Each structure stands twice: as structure tokens, then as C-alpha cells.
Fold each of these.
Amino acid sequence: MPHRFHLPPQLVRIVLLAGGIVGSYLVARYFLTPPSFGDYGFYRGAALRELADHQPVYAGRKACKECHDEVVLKLEAHEHKNLACEGCHGAGQAHSDNPDIKLAVLTYSHCVRCHEKNLSRPKWHKQIVSKDHYAGSKCTECHVPHSPNEVP
Amino acid sequence: MSLEITNAIAELTPHFEGYAYPNEATPHPLWTVLIVLYPYITGLVAGAFIMASLVRVFEVKALQPVYRLSLLTAFGFLLCAPLPLLLHLGHPERCFQVMITPHLTSPMAIFGFVYAWYLMAVLLLELWFDYRHDLVVWSQTTTGLKSTIYRLLTVGVTDTSEPALKLDARIGHILSVVGIPSAFLLHGYVGFIFGSVKANPWWGNVLMPIIFILSAVVSGIALCVFNYMVLMWLRRKLVDMRCLDVMGMYLFYALVVDAGIEALDWIHRVYSAEEGFQVMQYMAQEKLFYTLNLGQALLGTLVPLLLLGSLQLFRHKVPELWRRRMYFTSAMVILIGVMAMRWNVVIGGQLFSKSLRGLMSYKMEFAGLEGWLMSAVLLCLPFVILAVLVKLFLSEKLPSSEHA
Amino acid sequence: MKNSYSRRSVLTVLGAAVTGVLASPAARTAKAAVQKVLASTGAAKGYDPTRHKWVMGIDVNNCIGCGLCAEACKRENHVPEGPYYRTWIERYTIAKPKPGSGDARGAATVESPMGGMNGFKDPELSKDEILHSFFVPKLCNLCQHSPCVQVCPVGATFDAPDGAVLIDPKYCIGCGFCIQACPYGCRFLNPRTRTAEKCTLCYHRITKGLQPACVEICPTQARVFGDLKNSGPDDPIQKFYRNNKVQALKPHLGTEPRVLYAGFDKEVS
């Protein structure tokens, strides 16, 4: 005698429906999970590559040194040796890729940005009150930015 | 001590005081009124379901007249619950990712599953098992579109024999029992989302999920009172006073517990005065003055406590007309008060800086995805859906066989 | 008509299940076709994220509040104009206590105009009224127990194996939970991409052997950057840890930030 289950019709339909819903969810999940998900952790592993692929805007001193090695060597021998070229000259990757693209022309504000006296600045840092120091004139009349204590 | 901020929307210059982290100086908080509406709506769902389970699980026979209305209310509001979330997401088209790769350490990841479970396994099934007999009868006695709808809903099962109906009742009972913790999970996880944010002292405490659930129960019962009275009024039928009195009783005691726990939260904060207490107190006084003192405390808690409490003590002395007015008023102010509570929690938490040194502000826009207009639409939509549901499933013209 | 299950129907179901299992290689191929799998692997070419552990230290004693770092970061990472900062500088001004009040310290004021991008004016108090005034650069604290990663519902923000905490802008749904969960205010919602965004340690630079833009540009080495898995005792980061007593921000929250600060007062939060 074949063994017969007697399931009430309500339950059969409901169980089938539930199975269908759960089944289609599992299938959807299988197909929709991104390919690299879980490679390194609970995230899309491909994101690491995508984030690393952005192009830099600042080139870094090494790039400047490739063409402007004399200037950089002079800089490195004086007090401004730890300054980034691009801190004063502006972002340089575009220029590094294509030297026809020129960088910003420097103005007085580049010096006072760091050297203007401010009570919040640490005491070891050299600061001047620009309007008292040498009002109305350019810093470069007395200072050489790449070798600050040299008189031009 | 002024803060310079650049702001693309010139005319909506937000007001800042003190110091806020630069990333907090945005024109409006990150989680806007839509994130106030979502817990409000799911809270109503959970509360209305608890109301229904009082009949099914706790056998409170007096509440039988509102049983089906409570379930339909829960259903109508649940259908609208994901809308504020979808409107708020930066990428709503990626919303399915929550179910494809749910990050199990995040309370938000549970949303897709608990919503699907509650909608399908709890509400729809309970509704189906309760209505099954009527659906079969109605599919045979009506014509046209209605008949087709009823027939589709029977899912082809037309057995209306005694044993089948007994089984329906039993399964319905089991579903109600399962539904109570499911309802707590549906709304409690939202409270946990806030309660788990240790970065924000206004949100991150252990009472938050409890308070959310309790105020949800209160708001749900109030909504059922409101819906029941409005429906009876629209149909020019008499309200079952015994039912209303019992609803009012449960509403009162739920409100007492809710108010007690909220008071505990407040007392604890004031007493232990932990980090950030000063800026939070200042924020509550300045930015939340009306919504907290007037909306949540006075209108939402004190007034209904007095009204309902006096009805508990002096019910037999108060004539029916006045009892009805008092129940209706209590329900209305509670609904407003719980909405104010959600506002105070969600928006309040974003009106002071995480640096604990400054305040921000929130001016709601009128139009747009997250403004007054959209909020009004989102609050009216569940009632529109409910009206359709009532027309189909609580029609006076169709005979119903509500279970004993 | 009662539904009943006979041996035949059970065997049919079992047979269908077995067929399903056997069909899984075909399913995998179908999946690959559906997803158009590319041949590339996850990490950047020639860079193994498990061989590095990047970290930054901040020496508050050296910061002069010039704002070059905040400006460089905005440019380098194309951060939209407006109150969106991957890094910023705060200025703390702690006043002297009022004479005769018996207080240990006066009130503290914190400012960050435009994130400090254009520098700072003199503080409002005069020299005699100031006890301490200093600048504190802020950025993602690279927490060991990041609350932001914990709360992301989809796995769009994560701890990379090399120490950076990153966001996958193609996967982020813009819910904002991570922004709420960060105690340090370092995250924001990018209004253009409508995804969360934050300091990535200039991931696109460090994977190519460059330094983050803010570190590169800083004139006073207030920002110290290094690779803890590949640094000897003379590397700046090791010297920083050795020569300074360091602190973390908001240590009571248990996030265990890996960005450590040297030289700030108790008012910094």
C-alpha cells in the first residue's frame, strides 16, 4: 500500500507558494551577487582596483625633480627643504604629463599664507606681521623662496 | 564665533550656533522628515497588529468588531512603509542589494527580510486564513471585477467544510502568536538602528528600541480607535461602546507603560548628565521646544492620560456621547504626539553637532522629494489604500462570517 | 478532491532536485554570462593590499593652520564645493580663566571656516587672554573597530586589508547610516554621486607609491604617513610614535582609532 499524506489543500497551496518565493529569491541572489563580492571581505573586491585607478592631480616632488633637479637640489639644501613644490606652485600632474601646460604664477599671498603672524601658530614657526614687516612690497625683493635666507 | 559656510542654495541659509564639524554644516540634516515617517508608519502597523492579536491570542471578545479593521489597517499601512525609504535613498535603484548582500552586522540589513516576512508570512497569511471562507462565498455571490479578485485570492482553494474552517482558525491563531514577536521585530529593529549609534548620545542608548515598540503599540491602538470611529461615522452606524471602552482601556494602560519608560529615559539622562548632556538639553529647549513640550509631552502624553484615565475611573458616570468624544480626542492627540516623538528622536539627534559644541537647524522645503507636500501624500496614501481595502473586504453589503 | 502524495510524486520531486544539482555547472556558466565577468582581479595591478598597513599620525605641535592640506585634498579628490570635506582643520582657542574665579581654564572656542581651506584669521581673543591656541587637522580615524563599516547594510564600505577604510561608490545605496555612525564627523553624502564619501588615504596615490595629497603638501610635517608593515625605526611614523606621547579622539567609544594625535589639550573632541 503506498503511503499517503493527507495535507489540507490550504496548506499545500501556501507551502508551494512559499517555496516558489524562497526559490526565486535564492535564484535571484545567485545571479545578482556581484562577481568579486567576498574576495577580500564583505565587499566587492573589484572596488579596490576601481578606487586605485583614479588619476592623481598632484605629482609629488619626485616628479618635479625629474626635470627641475637643480632647483630641487637647491631647495633641499636650505630651510624650505621640507616644503612641497606644489604647495606654492600648485597641482602639477597635468604639467608633469604635458609640460606645455604651465603652472600658476606665484603671488605675495603664497608667502604670507604660512608666515603671517597668527596667535594660534606654534612659536617655533617664523612669522611676521606683513604690514609692519615691509608694507606693500613683494617678499621676493628680499627673500629667495627656494633658499629663504639668501639675499637676492 | 561665527561659522563661515558655503551654501549652494542661497535662500535656505541654515542657522548654526557654536561649532559643528564642517561636514555637518549642510542645508538640512541627512535623515529628513521621510526618516521620521518611516518609523511612524511601521509603528502604526505593529501597533494595529498587536490590537488584532488581542482578539486572536488573548481572546478579548469585546474587541471582535475591530479585528478585521485592525488587520486591514496594518496591511494598508505596511504597503506604504517602504516608500519613504525609497524616496530618501541616494540610489533607490540599488535597494535590492540589501537582500542580495545583506551585511549581517547592520541592523538596517534586516529590513528586506523582516518586511517580506511580516508582509507575507504574517499579515497576508493571517488575513487569508481569516478571510478564506468569506472569499469563497463572495467569489460565488458577486460578479465582475470583484468576483475575479475574490476568486484569485482564494488561490483555488474552495473547501469550506467544518474541519477546513477549524484548521483555518487554528492556523490563524498560530500566525497571531508568531506575529507578535514579528511585529516587535519589524518596529524594534528601527529603534535599534538608532539605539546602536554610539556616536550620537541622543540616540545611542539601550531604551531606544523599547521606547519605539511601546509608542508603536500606543499609536497603533489609537489608529484603530480613530479608524473604527471614522468608519462607523461614515456608515452612519452606531459604535459598539463596549468595544470602544475596552480599546480605550488598553490604550490607557499602554500609554501608561510607554510614558513611564519615556520618563525613565528622561530622568536617567538628567540625573547622570553624561557627555553631551548640556548641548542636548540646550538643543531640546531651543530647537525642540514645541514638538517636545507641546507635541509629545502635553498633547501626546498628558492630555490623553488625563482623558483616558478619568474614563477608567469614572466611566459609568460619563454619558456615551462624551465618552466617544473623549476617545476620539485622545486617539487624535496620541497620533499627533507619537509623530512628534518620532520627529524629536530622528531630527533632534541631528540638530546638535557630534562635536557637542554646536547646533544646526532644519527648515523643511515645501515641494521636492523630502518636503511638506511629499509627507502629506505619504501620510494620506495609507488611508486611500485602506479605503479600497475596506470597500473590498469590509463591505456592509457582503455577508461575513467573522470567527467567534 | 484531497491532495495526497504517493511514492511516484515523491520520487519525481527527488529526481527534479538531483537534476538541479547536476545542472549547477551550467547554472554557473549562465551566471557568468549574465554578469559579464571581466578577467581582472580585485586589487590594483602590481599591488598586494595584504603586504601593507597604512596609517597616519598627526603632530599638532607642528600644524600652522595654513590650510594647504584641506585645499589639496579637495582638488586631488574632486570633492564638490560646499560643506563637504574629506579632511579639515579645526582651531582651538582656550582662554585663560577669569582672574579670581578659581577655574583651572577658561572657555574653549572651536572654529573651522571653510574647513580651514583658506587658512585662519587671528583668534578673537588677545594674546593676554589666550592660554593655548592650536590647530588640529582632522580626517578619517581609521578605526580598528569601525562603527561605519559595522552599520553598512550592503557591504559598500569596508576595511581594506591595507588599513584604509574605503567606500565602493558603485555599490553604496546612499542610506547615510555610516555617516550617522561615524563619531568623528569625517563622512558626508556627496551631492553629485549621492553616495557616502570620506578620506580614502588617497588610495589611488598610495597604491602607486605616492603619498596622500595632504601629507605631500604639508609644509611642516604635521601629518605623518607610513606603512606599519614596511617601516624601519627611522621611518617618520615610527619616530613619531617613539618621540611623542599620543592620544586618540573619543577613546571612550571603543572605536580604537589608528590615527593618533600628539600634542592636543583635553578640549579637543
Note: The first helix of chain C runs from residue 7 to 22.
Amino acid sequence: METALVFVEIKGEEPRKVSLEVLSELRKLTGGGGYVLEAVVLGNLPERAKQNILVYADRLVHITDAVLDQYTSEGYSLALARYAESTKPKLIAAGATRMGRDFLPRVAVLLKTGIASDITEFLWDEESLKFIRPIYGGRVLAEVYFENRAGIVTVRPNAFPLGTPGGVAGEYVAREIGMMPTEIKSKVMDSRAAAKEKVDLTEADIIVSGGRGLKAAENFKLLEDLADAIGATVGATRSVVDAKWREQEDQVGKSGKTVSPKLYIAIGISGAIHHIMGMDTSKLILAINKDPNALIYDYADYGIAADLFEVVPVMTEELKKRLGK
Amino acid sequence: MNIVVLVKQVPDPEVVIGIKDEGKSLEIEQKFTTNFFDEFAIEEALRLREKHGGKVRVITLGGDKAVEVLRKCVAMGADEVLLFADAAYLNGDGYATALALSKATARGPFDIILCGKQAVDDDRAEVGPMVAQFLGIPHAGGIVKLDVVDGKATADFMSDGGQETVEIPLPALFSAQKGLNEPRVPLVTNVMKAMKATIPRITPQELGMSTDEIGVSGSKVRADRYRLPMKRRKIQMIAGEAPQAAAEAVRILFEVERAL
């Protein structure tokens, strides 16, 4: 039987949502059998995460070497490459998170294989295995394939739905891979979590983003209130971040984050191309901008060409009513 | 301190892109610029040299037009530049590109390698970590701060939902994220001088590489065809005074789209 290996990233007590999305999608694609779907966790594995992963995979391999408790690109790439060398999976997949995109290119070099980064589709049939990856900020889709049999892919968060777990829990295997502390030269000095515990933009189901139309940093309170009502994450445009109204990590666009939420509400955003490149794959887009000719309306499903300061508070109230808040 | 900067010339983000040969290739308007993230890498290299002394070497893999990005680096203050001079180098995947760049880097001494966190055309973000692995050195990706003291670097980068600081002994590679610095604008006199500078080129043979290791031949990932993303349906504007439009939008989100 062939193996499809999925690197599962742990955040806090849980696996990253995108890791489970990748497992769900591969389960669907390999459903006909012939494949072992294997989740691999490096370092710390909280019990809750373990139980959560087991229902999405046939096997969970937990590599327990102590040096892996702290993420380093060197440590993770060596450990995963060593493990993969021993099992020769047909495909290695992971979420295209900061971590996944940081160390998997190194794994590709160690295994002398190719990597397709940030893919949004699998084209998997009997004869071939191909992938779609957006290039030029999503303005073009490239269909790519591996020259060799095996390869590595990182998968864009929110590109695939989270499946319902299989029901039968997979097998759990813990093992050491024999990592020496001297093999890792970089040292993590400090790791600060963001002040607020919130869903990262790349994994958010709903995003409420603001642009220059908000006029001042304090007016983002309107967006925060709207976001709180519907469990959304607040994003921002480049000009808003450059003006220091919002943090860099909130930026959606070419020089910020690429997002694909189920719902993207663009408020006071003109629709500059570098912003569009970061959010054009959102499933549903509602734009609010008082200029009826704003570029954003070329990329949205619904639009309200009225003053955001009048529209947003009413929307927040209406949403709260609907949700019984 | 020996600093190497890897840069890329990319199509301007607003160029017209078309698809031709029944999806087999792309037609891209010939208007170029320096990759957005690479400017932070060049600037950081120049600042490190100003503080610690040494030399800044800039390398690019690109066609003849890529001479422009190197002239810009010369104008900004780079000491040496190098262009890959063979069409066979072009259109490779991350692997082939990183292999060639790592070989060119290793032709001279290096303590620090800087590059942008990703190229905004291919959006791969693979070459930085891959060059580091080919050279067997550590890297830190997407950094927003870099300090070097006694052969050790301290770098800050944004993680998903926080910020981290790492300490890395040199030699090491760092990829630059927006926020690392404010790239300088070169003086007009330096731009004029850079126009006349000789841009050295290197062939695959000089690099000790065979043509099947580079470009498309050396690639492990191949592009089969291209297509344009599906167009979004035509927008539906929600009419009415602001409060009515707001209420109608909420109704649509719940009842029509079932998005909430």
C-alpha cells in the first residue's frame, strides 16, 4: 500500500484547522483504498490534539525527540526527511502556514524532490496526480505535476472543507528518529503570542476588513463590533497598515496575507489590485463603499454604495438580532 | 562581513497577463520591477555593511532584462553583481533555481545571505529555505528585525499569531518581510553611474553545472498548463437608504447565501 503523509501542525492544545482540512481532502481522494493516510506530528502532542487527529487518519506517527518540542526549520526538516526516507510516501502534504512554507522546501532538498507550494486543488485520478497553484497573486492558475513519482505539497488554508471525522480512530505510533541537539544551530530565544487569542486571518471563516474609508484608527471599533457579533477576524488594507492604524499581521493583500474565507466583508476599501490579490479567492464578498465606481465592486458579489458609518452599525445590530445576541 | 543578496526581477504587479498556445504558456506584458520583498533584503545588506564593513554581492537569475535590477542594486550601493547568462537557466522550479543560486553564492565567501520572503510572480517562497538547505546552513524566514554581534545573528519574525526571536550562528540565510527597514532611494548621480557599470555574467559551465540541472530540465515540478480563475458572477448592488440596505444585506447573508 502507498502512503500519503500529512504533516500536522499543533497550535496550543489543538491541531491547526488546515492540517485537518488536508487530511479530510486526502481521505476523500484516497477513499477507494490502496492508501494509508498517515498523520505525522513532530514534538509536543497534547492529548486533546492526539484524539482529534486520530479520527482523521489511519495512523498517527508521533516523533518524540526532545529537540522537536520547539520548532526550528532545521530540526523539523531533518526529522521529517529522515522519517520519510524510511517510509517513502507517495505524497507529503501540509498546510501552507508560515511553518509549513518555512521548513518543507528544506525537506524537498533533503529528499531531492519537488515541492508545489500553496496549492488550492488536487487533480487526482488513476493515471496522474496534478495540482493547481495560483500564481501572480491569483491572477493565473498553474496546473503542475511532479517529474518524479513522489513530491511535497503545501495546501492553502480554507481551500478545502473540513470533513466529518471517519469515526474509527486510527492507530497511534510513537517513535524517536534520533535527532542530535548539535544538528540544530538556531535557537529560539523568545516566542510571544499575540495579545488577543483570535483566529488567524488565513484560517478565518469570516473576515471583516477595513480600508482608508474608515478615516481613523479608532473607527476600527465599528469593525471590531461587527466582527465580534459574527465571530469574524478583522483584516486591513496596506494603506491602513502603513498609516499604523492596524498591525502588519492584519494586512490582507500582496504584501500581507492571502485569505480565502467563506465570507469577506470589505468596508471602506477602494479595491487596489494588491489588495484584491490577497482576497479574490474568498467564497462570498460583500463590499461597502460609498463610491459606486469603486474598483472593489468589480470583485464583489454584493455591494452597498452608501456611507459605511451609517451602514455598519445597523448591520451589527441586525446581525445580533438574528443571532439572538 | 561578506553579504550575498539574491534578487529577482519580476513583472510589474499590474501588467496585463494573457494565456496562449491553448493554455501551454503565458503572455506577459514586458514591464518589470524589482521584486517587492527583495528591496528590503538589499537595504538590510547595505546597512549591515555600513555597520560592520565588508562587501555586498548581489546575484540574480534572470534573462537579459534582469540587468536592470542589478543596475538598481549598483546604484543603491552594491559592491559586486552577477547575472546568470543563459536562457537555459530560466523557468526552473524552486529546486533548480535554488541549486543554481546556491552554487553561485558558494563561489565566494559568505557570512550572511539575504533574499525576499517570496517572489511576487511565482509566489513560491521556496528559494530562500532551499538555498539554505543546499548550503547546509540555518535560515530564518520573513524577518522584520536583524542584529549581528560576534558572528551571531538575532532575528525577529512574525509567526502565525505572534512574534518570535531566534539566535542563529553565521553563516545563515534570512528572508526579508515588509517592516524590516525602509529601502533607500538611490542618488541620481549613482543611478547615472550604474547605467554605465559592466554587469558580469556567468554561464552554466563556469558554474560547473550541466544544462540538465538547470531551468526547466532541472526542475522537479513542471507546469502543464495555465488558465484564468473563474470570473465572479456579476455584482448585485443593494439599493436603498443606508439602514434599509444594511438590513437587506443581513437578510441576504442569512436567507439567500446561508453564509452565517
Note: The first helix of chain B runs from residue 38 to 52.
